[in-house]
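Can't paste images in this forum, so I'm doing it all in text. The chain is below; anyone willing to post the predicted structure tokens underneath?
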Amino acid sequence: MPAAAYIDRVETSTTFDAQFRDADLNLRVLVSGGRGFGAGGRDGAPAGGGPGGASTAPDYDLRAILAGPDGKEVQRSVLNIPAHCGTARDTLLTMHVNAPRHWTAETPDLYRLTVELVQGGAVAHARTSAVGFRQISTTGGVVRINGQAVKTARRMPPRRKTRTWAGPPSGKTGCKTDEGREYQHGPDIPLSTGRGLHRTLR
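Text version of the structure:
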């Protein structure tokens, strides 16, 4: 595992209020790194040892920046993470957004989320991802996106083709197979055998 701290994973989910006007953007950020996240703590202080001799990571900041579909910054949040033992830590962060644009199939508006890991005043690592504000529910067996019911297409069974057998044309004999193909016979055809005898095929 590398010595420097880095953002391993960022998971997001959105939750609207009862009127589906404002929303919370919920972040789950996993920060990983080598033992002690490096050699020193904030402002050059030594990382120090934790209980039982375990290495303690220096404190750091998680900075989340949300930009709208037009590229303009909508909101930013900064959360300080105190020094902790171990090499990985999950952090939960919530950003409240006023009247975000809803993501739908007709209006697929996407926001840009950037999460930065800041140590000693400098950005050590960052991750950027696209975020769409939508909330899906199935209450009462009805699929809803952002509170609006969605009509689902019903799957109809395939139609079976039926045929009506009206009999062979006049003057001909015929038969119909299971596949619906018709075999017709013309007039009697004499067949000659090797012994000079004649047989008739009907």
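The chain has a mean pLDDT of 77. Residues 6-149 form a domain with the Immunoglobulin-like fold (CATH 2.60.40.10).
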